[in-house]
Amino acid sequence: MGAGGQMNVSKTENDILKRVCVSKPPFSLSDLKKAIPPHCFKRSLIKSLGSFFRDLFIIYTFYYLAANYIPILPWPLVYVTWPIYWFAQGCVLMGFWLLGHETGHHAFSEYEWLDDAFGFFIHSVTLTPYFSFKYSHRSHHAHTNSLEYDEVYIPKRKNDTFFTEFLNNGPGNVFTLILRTTLGLPLYLFFNTYGRDYEGFANHYLPQSAIFNDSERTQIVISDIGIIAVMYTLYRTAVTQGVQSTLFLYGLPLFVMSGFFITLTYLNHAHPGIPHYDATEWDWLRGALSTIDRDYGKLMSWVFHDGPENHVIHHLFPTIPHYHASEARDAVKPMLGDYYKWDNTPMLKALWRDTVECIYVEPDENSENKGVYWYSK
Protein backbone atom coordinates (compact mmCIF):
# COMPACT_ATOMS: atom_id res chain seq x y z
CA MET A 1 0.00 0.00 0.00
CA GLY A 2 2.94 2.28 0.70
CA ALA A 3 4.11 2.34 -2.91
CA GLY A 4 0.59 2.62 -4.23
CA GLY A 5 -0.15 5.48 -1.85
CA GLN A 6 2.93 7.37 -3.03
CA MET A 7 1.87 6.93 -6.65
CA ASN A 8 -1.54 8.39 -5.87
CA VAL A 9 0.02 11.36 -4.10
CA SER A 10 2.40 11.92 -7.00
CA LYS A 11 -0.45 11.76 -9.51
CA THR A 12 -2.44 14.25 -7.48
CA GLU A 13 0.50 16.65 -7.35
CA ASN A 14 1.00 16.33 -11.09
CA ASP A 15 -2.67 17.09 -11.67
CA ILE A 16 -2.43 20.18 -9.46
CA LEU A 17 0.56 21.52 -11.38
CA LYS A 18 -0.82 20.57 -14.81
CA ARG A 19 -1.23 23.52 -17.14
CA VAL A 20 -4.72 24.62 -18.04
CA CYS A 21 -5.89 24.67 -21.64
CA VAL A 22 -5.08 27.93 -23.47
CA SER A 23 -6.80 27.45 -26.83
CA LYS A 24 -9.95 29.40 -27.60
CA PRO A 25 -12.68 27.89 -25.39
CA PRO A 26 -15.44 25.96 -27.19
CA PHE A 27 -17.98 27.69 -24.92
CA SER A 28 -18.96 31.32 -24.42
CA LEU A 29 -19.75 33.32 -21.31
CA SER A 30 -23.42 33.03 -22.27
CA ASP A 31 -23.10 29.23 -22.36
CA LEU A 32 -21.65 29.25 -18.86
CA LYS A 33 -24.40 31.53 -17.58
CA LYS A 34 -27.08 29.22 -18.95
CA ALA A 35 -25.57 26.33 -16.98
CA ILE A 36 -25.97 28.19 -13.68
CA PRO A 37 -29.33 28.00 -11.85
CA PRO A 38 -31.02 31.43 -12.19
CA HIS A 39 -31.43 31.85 -8.44
CA CYS A 40 -27.63 31.99 -8.05
CA PHE A 41 -27.70 35.48 -9.55
CA LYS A 42 -30.25 36.75 -7.03
CA ARG A 43 -28.89 38.88 -4.21
CA SER A 44 -30.58 38.60 -0.82
CA LEU A 45 -30.14 41.57 1.49
CA ILE A 46 -31.24 39.39 4.42
CA LYS A 47 -28.52 36.81 3.76
CA SER A 48 -25.89 39.47 3.16
CA LEU A 49 -26.82 41.25 6.37
CA GLY A 50 -26.64 37.90 8.15
CA SER A 51 -23.00 37.54 7.06
CA PHE A 52 -22.30 41.17 7.95
CA PHE A 53 -23.68 40.95 11.49
CA ARG A 54 -22.15 37.50 11.99
CA ASP A 55 -18.71 38.94 11.40
CA LEU A 56 -19.42 42.02 13.52
CA PHE A 57 -20.57 39.81 16.40
CA ILE A 58 -17.44 37.65 16.24
CA ILE A 59 -15.16 40.69 15.93
CA TYR A 60 -16.76 42.35 18.96
CA THR A 61 -16.72 39.11 20.97
CA PHE A 62 -13.02 38.58 20.30
CA TYR A 63 -12.34 42.24 21.13
CA TYR A 64 -14.33 42.11 24.38
CA LEU A 65 -12.65 38.91 25.58
CA ALA A 66 -9.19 40.20 24.69
CA ALA A 67 -9.69 43.62 26.26
CA ASN A 68 -11.20 42.36 29.50
CA TYR A 69 -9.64 38.98 30.18
CA ILE A 70 -6.20 38.69 28.59
CA PRO A 71 -4.69 41.47 30.77
CA ILE A 72 -5.71 39.64 33.98
CA LEU A 73 -4.28 36.28 32.95
CA PRO A 74 -1.02 35.02 34.50
CA TRP A 75 1.99 36.36 32.60
CA PRO A 76 2.98 33.10 30.88
CA LEU A 77 -0.54 32.80 29.43
CA VAL A 78 -0.57 36.42 28.28
CA TYR A 79 2.30 35.73 25.87
CA VAL A 80 0.29 32.89 24.34
CA THR A 81 -3.20 34.36 24.25
CA TRP A 82 -2.31 37.69 22.62
CA PRO A 83 -0.89 36.05 19.46
CA ILE A 84 -3.91 33.73 19.35
CA TYR A 85 -6.18 36.77 19.49
CA TRP A 86 -4.21 38.61 16.80
CA PHE A 87 -4.41 35.64 14.45
CA ALA A 88 -8.07 34.83 15.09
CA GLN A 89 -9.20 38.44 14.88
CA GLY A 90 -7.10 38.98 11.76
CA CYS A 91 -8.81 36.02 10.08
CA VAL A 92 -12.27 37.35 10.87
CA LEU A 93 -11.30 40.85 9.73
CA MET A 94 -10.20 39.33 6.43
CA GLY A 95 -13.60 37.69 6.04
CA PHE A 96 -15.22 41.02 6.90
CA TRP A 97 -13.03 42.75 4.31
CA LEU A 98 -14.19 40.23 1.71
CA LEU A 99 -17.79 41.29 2.33
CA GLY A 100 -16.69 44.84 1.55
CA HIS A 101 -15.09 43.56 -1.64
CA GLU A 102 -18.39 41.90 -2.52
CA THR A 103 -20.26 45.18 -2.11
CA GLY A 104 -17.87 46.77 -4.61
CA HIS A 105 -19.08 44.23 -7.18
CA HIS A 106 -22.74 45.03 -6.41
CA ALA A 107 -23.20 41.49 -5.06
CA PHE A 108 -24.45 42.48 -1.59
CA SER A 109 -27.98 43.66 -2.40
CA GLU A 110 -30.17 44.86 -5.24
CA TYR A 111 -29.38 48.48 -4.35
CA GLU A 112 -26.01 49.80 -5.47
CA TRP A 113 -26.15 52.79 -3.12
CA LEU A 114 -26.67 50.44 -0.20
CA ASP A 115 -23.79 48.25 -1.34
CA ASP A 116 -21.53 51.29 -1.48
CA ALA A 117 -22.65 52.41 1.98
CA PHE A 118 -21.83 49.05 3.58
CA GLY A 119 -18.63 48.70 1.56
CA PHE A 120 -17.50 52.18 2.55
CA PHE A 121 -17.96 51.30 6.22
CA ILE A 122 -16.31 47.87 6.02
CA HIS A 123 -13.27 48.96 4.05
CA SER A 124 -12.80 52.20 5.98
CA VAL A 125 -12.64 50.41 9.35
CA THR A 126 -10.09 48.01 7.82
CA LEU A 127 -8.10 51.00 6.48
CA THR A 128 -8.78 50.32 2.81
CA PRO A 129 -9.96 53.27 0.66
CA TYR A 130 -13.26 51.87 -0.58
CA PHE A 131 -13.94 53.66 -3.87
CA SER A 132 -10.25 53.77 -4.75
CA PHE A 133 -9.95 50.01 -4.44
CA LYS A 134 -13.31 49.47 -6.13
CA TYR A 135 -12.17 51.31 -9.25
CA SER A 136 -8.69 49.78 -9.51
CA HIS A 137 -10.17 46.36 -8.82
CA ARG A 138 -12.70 46.88 -11.58
CA SER A 139 -9.78 47.34 -13.98
CA HIS A 140 -8.25 44.10 -12.70
CA HIS A 141 -11.46 42.24 -13.55
CA ALA A 142 -11.59 43.86 -16.97
CA HIS A 143 -8.01 42.83 -17.87
CA THR A 144 -7.23 39.72 -15.81
CA ASN A 145 -3.85 38.18 -16.70
CA SER A 146 -3.14 40.67 -19.45
CA LEU A 147 0.57 41.46 -19.32
CA GLU A 148 -0.06 45.00 -20.53
CA TYR A 149 -3.25 46.02 -18.73
CA ASP A 150 -3.96 43.87 -15.68
CA GLU A 151 -4.02 45.95 -12.53
CA VAL A 152 -2.10 43.84 -9.99
CA TYR A 153 0.30 40.90 -9.64
CA ILE A 154 1.89 41.69 -12.97
CA PRO A 155 4.57 39.00 -13.40
CA LYS A 156 8.15 39.95 -14.11
CA ARG A 157 9.82 39.15 -17.42
CA LYS A 158 13.04 37.19 -17.76
CA ASN A 159 15.05 40.28 -18.70
CA ASP A 160 14.30 41.86 -15.29
CA THR A 161 17.54 40.57 -13.82
CA PHE A 162 16.92 41.95 -10.30
CA PHE A 163 14.13 39.41 -9.89
CA THR A 164 15.27 36.63 -12.20
CA GLU A 165 18.87 36.53 -10.96
CA PHE A 166 19.46 38.51 -7.76
CA LEU A 167 16.29 37.34 -5.95
CA ASN A 168 15.99 33.95 -7.65
CA ASN A 169 17.55 31.94 -4.83
CA GLY A 170 16.79 30.75 -1.32
CA PRO A 171 17.51 33.99 0.56
CA GLY A 172 15.85 36.00 -2.21
CA ASN A 173 12.73 33.84 -2.01
CA VAL A 174 12.55 34.28 1.76
CA PHE A 175 13.01 38.05 1.43
CA THR A 176 10.30 38.26 -1.25
CA LEU A 177 7.88 36.18 0.79
CA ILE A 178 8.38 38.19 3.99
CA LEU A 179 8.16 41.55 2.22
CA ARG A 180 5.05 40.55 0.29
CA THR A 181 3.11 39.19 3.27
CA THR A 182 4.07 41.91 5.76
CA LEU A 183 4.09 45.11 3.71
CA GLY A 184 2.44 44.05 0.46
CA LEU A 185 -0.94 45.70 1.00
CA PRO A 186 0.30 49.13 2.14
CA LEU A 187 2.98 49.09 -0.57
CA TYR A 188 0.28 48.42 -3.16
CA LEU A 189 -2.09 51.09 -1.86
CA PHE A 190 0.59 53.76 -1.42
CA PHE A 191 3.03 53.02 -4.26
CA ASN A 192 1.19 50.59 -6.56
CA THR A 193 3.84 47.94 -5.89
CA TYR A 194 2.93 44.71 -7.73
CA GLY A 195 0.64 46.83 -9.91
CA ARG A 196 0.43 47.93 -13.51
CA ASP A 197 2.84 50.53 -14.86
CA TYR A 198 1.31 53.96 -15.32
CA GLU A 199 2.81 57.02 -16.96
CA GLY A 200 2.03 59.14 -13.90
CA PHE A 201 2.32 58.45 -10.19
CA ALA A 202 -0.09 55.68 -9.14
CA ASN A 203 -1.50 55.81 -5.62
CA HIS A 204 -4.85 54.79 -4.11
CA TYR A 205 -5.18 57.91 -1.94
CA LEU A 206 -4.44 60.76 -4.35
CA PRO A 207 -7.48 61.90 -6.36
CA GLN A 208 -5.16 62.91 -9.21
CA SER A 209 -3.56 59.46 -9.34
CA ALA A 210 -3.12 57.97 -12.80
CA ILE A 211 -5.26 55.02 -11.72
CA PHE A 212 -8.47 57.07 -11.79
CA ASN A 213 -10.35 59.08 -14.38
CA ASP A 214 -11.90 62.51 -13.84
CA SER A 215 -15.38 61.19 -13.03
CA GLU A 216 -13.99 59.13 -10.12
CA ARG A 217 -11.83 61.70 -8.33
CA THR A 218 -14.54 63.07 -6.02
CA GLN A 219 -15.20 59.58 -4.67
CA ILE A 220 -11.49 59.12 -4.04
CA VAL A 221 -11.72 62.14 -1.73
CA ILE A 222 -14.66 60.49 0.03
CA SER A 223 -12.58 57.33 0.46
CA ASP A 224 -9.81 59.41 2.01
CA ILE A 225 -12.26 61.07 4.40
CA GLY A 226 -13.31 57.62 5.61
CA ILE A 227 -9.70 56.63 6.26
CA ILE A 228 -8.95 59.93 8.02
CA ALA A 229 -12.02 59.50 10.26
CA VAL A 230 -10.91 56.01 11.31
CA MET A 231 -7.33 57.16 11.85
CA TYR A 232 -8.52 60.03 14.04
CA THR A 233 -10.66 57.61 16.06
CA LEU A 234 -7.62 55.40 16.55
CA TYR A 235 -5.58 58.42 17.62
CA ARG A 236 -8.17 59.37 20.23
CA THR A 237 -8.32 55.76 21.39
CA ALA A 238 -4.54 55.65 21.76
CA VAL A 239 -4.60 58.89 23.77
CA THR A 240 -7.30 57.69 26.15
CA GLN A 241 -6.56 53.95 26.39
CA GLY A 242 -2.88 53.81 25.53
CA VAL A 243 -0.82 53.08 22.46
CA GLN A 244 -0.13 49.47 23.46
CA SER A 245 -3.79 48.69 24.01
CA THR A 246 -4.75 50.17 20.63
CA LEU A 247 -1.92 48.33 18.91
CA PHE A 248 -2.73 44.99 20.54
CA LEU A 249 -6.50 45.18 20.10
CA TYR A 250 -6.64 46.71 16.61
CA GLY A 251 -3.27 47.29 15.00
CA LEU A 252 -1.81 43.80 15.12
CA PRO A 253 -5.04 42.03 14.06
CA LEU A 254 -5.14 44.44 11.11
CA PHE A 255 -1.53 43.53 10.34
CA VAL A 256 -2.55 39.85 10.26
CA MET A 257 -5.50 40.73 8.02
CA SER A 258 -3.12 42.51 5.66
CA GLY A 259 -0.96 39.39 5.47
CA PHE A 260 -4.00 37.25 4.69
CA PHE A 261 -5.12 39.72 2.03
CA ILE A 262 -1.85 39.34 0.14
CA THR A 263 -1.66 35.58 0.70
CA LEU A 264 -5.19 34.88 -0.51
CA THR A 265 -5.12 37.21 -3.50
CA TYR A 266 -1.64 36.11 -4.57
CA LEU A 267 -2.55 32.43 -4.41
CA ASN A 268 -5.72 33.00 -6.41
CA HIS A 269 -3.64 34.55 -9.22
CA ALA A 270 -0.19 32.90 -9.17
CA HIS A 271 0.32 29.25 -10.08
CA PRO A 272 2.73 27.28 -12.30
CA GLY A 273 -0.19 25.94 -14.30
CA ILE A 274 -1.81 29.29 -15.08
CA PRO A 275 -0.87 31.43 -18.13
CA HIS A 276 -0.60 35.14 -18.78
CA TYR A 277 -1.23 36.63 -22.21
CA ASP A 278 0.18 39.53 -24.17
CA ALA A 279 -1.91 41.70 -26.48
CA THR A 280 -1.60 39.26 -29.38
CA GLU A 281 -3.38 36.46 -27.48
CA TRP A 282 -5.35 37.95 -24.58
CA ASP A 283 -9.13 37.94 -24.50
CA TRP A 284 -11.46 38.54 -21.58
CA LEU A 285 -12.78 34.99 -21.17
CA ARG A 286 -9.40 33.27 -21.16
CA GLY A 287 -8.12 35.93 -18.80
CA ALA A 288 -10.96 35.34 -16.37
CA LEU A 289 -10.37 31.58 -16.54
CA SER A 290 -6.68 32.07 -15.71
CA THR A 291 -7.33 32.19 -11.98
CA ILE A 292 -7.22 29.50 -9.32
CA ASP A 293 -9.72 28.10 -6.84
CA ARG A 294 -8.03 27.19 -3.55
CA ASP A 295 -9.31 24.88 -0.83
CA TYR A 296 -7.99 25.61 2.68
CA GLY A 297 -10.47 23.51 4.62
CA LYS A 298 -14.00 24.01 5.90
CA LEU A 299 -13.14 26.38 8.74
CA MET A 300 -11.22 28.79 6.53
CA SER A 301 -13.96 28.59 3.90
CA TRP A 302 -16.51 29.58 6.53
CA VAL A 303 -14.41 32.43 7.87
CA PHE A 304 -13.59 33.75 4.39
CA HIS A 305 -17.18 33.37 3.09
CA ASP A 306 -16.16 30.70 0.55
CA GLY A 307 -14.05 33.25 -1.31
CA PRO A 308 -10.76 31.44 -2.04
CA GLU A 309 -12.49 28.33 -3.37
CA ASN A 310 -14.75 30.26 -5.74
CA HIS A 311 -12.41 32.73 -7.39
CA VAL A 312 -12.86 31.47 -10.93
CA ILE A 313 -16.64 31.83 -10.85
CA HIS A 314 -16.15 35.21 -9.18
CA HIS A 315 -14.11 36.43 -12.16
CA LEU A 316 -16.66 35.06 -14.60
CA PHE A 317 -19.72 36.44 -12.77
CA PRO A 318 -18.65 38.87 -10.04
CA THR A 319 -22.21 39.84 -9.07
CA ILE A 320 -22.97 36.32 -7.77
CA PRO A 321 -23.11 36.59 -3.96
CA HIS A 322 -20.88 34.40 -1.81
CA TYR A 323 -23.74 32.19 -0.56
CA HIS A 324 -24.50 31.05 -4.13
CA ALA A 325 -20.93 30.90 -5.43
CA SER A 326 -20.22 27.23 -4.67
CA GLU A 327 -23.41 26.08 -6.39
CA ALA A 328 -22.61 28.22 -9.42
CA ARG A 329 -19.03 26.92 -9.52
CA ASP A 330 -20.18 23.29 -9.44
CA ALA A 331 -22.68 23.99 -12.21
CA VAL A 332 -20.03 25.22 -14.67
CA LYS A 333 -17.13 22.90 -13.74
CA PRO A 334 -18.16 20.12 -16.15
CA MET A 335 -18.23 22.62 -19.02
CA LEU A 336 -14.92 24.23 -18.03
CA GLY A 337 -13.01 20.92 -18.06
CA ASP A 338 -9.29 21.51 -18.64
CA TYR A 339 -9.78 25.29 -18.55
CA TYR A 340 -10.38 25.08 -14.79
CA LYS A 341 -7.72 25.01 -12.07
CA TRP A 342 -8.37 23.73 -8.54
CA ASP A 343 -5.60 23.45 -5.95
CA ASN A 344 -6.05 22.03 -2.45
CA THR A 345 -2.40 22.40 -1.44
CA PRO A 346 -2.17 23.66 2.18
CA MET A 347 -1.86 27.43 2.31
CA LEU A 348 1.69 27.79 3.64
CA LYS A 349 3.04 25.03 1.39
CA ALA A 350 1.36 26.61 -1.65
CA LEU A 351 2.64 30.06 -0.70
CA TRP A 352 6.23 28.85 -0.53
CA ARG A 353 5.97 26.69 -3.66
CA ASP A 354 4.52 29.47 -5.78
CA THR A 355 6.98 32.03 -4.39
CA VAL A 356 9.82 29.76 -5.52
CA GLU A 357 8.32 28.57 -8.80
CA CYS A 358 6.63 31.75 -10.05
CA ILE A 359 9.60 34.09 -10.51
CA TYR A 360 9.02 35.35 -14.05
CA VAL A 361 7.03 34.50 -17.18
CA GLU A 362 8.12 33.66 -20.71
CA PRO A 363 6.62 31.80 -23.71
CA ASP A 364 7.56 28.20 -24.32
CA GLU A 365 10.49 28.11 -26.73
CA ASN A 366 8.99 25.61 -29.17
CA SER A 367 5.40 26.78 -28.94
CA GLU A 368 3.52 28.49 -31.74
CA ASN A 369 1.66 30.55 -29.11
CA LYS A 370 4.30 33.20 -28.51
CA GLY A 371 1.74 35.41 -26.83
CA VAL A 372 1.11 32.87 -24.05
CA TYR A 373 3.47 33.21 -21.09
CA TRP A 374 4.09 30.67 -18.33
CA TYR A 375 5.72 31.04 -14.96
CA SER A 376 9.28 29.83 -14.65
CA LYS A 377 12.23 30.26 -12.28
Automatic annotation (TrEMBL):
InterPro entries: FA_desaturase_dom, Fatty_acid_desaturase. The keyword Protease does not apply. GO terms for cellular component: membrane. Keywords: Membrane, Oxidoreductase, Transmembrane, Transmembrane helix. It is found in: Membrane. GO terms for molecular function: oxidoreductase activity. It holds the Pfam family FA_desaturase. GO terms for biological process: lipid metabolic process. The chain crosses the membrane at residues 52-70, 82-99, 218-235, 247-267. Its main location: membrane. Residues 81-341 form the Fatty acid desaturase domain. Belongs to the fatty acid desaturase type 1 family. This is Fatty acid desaturase domain-containing protein.
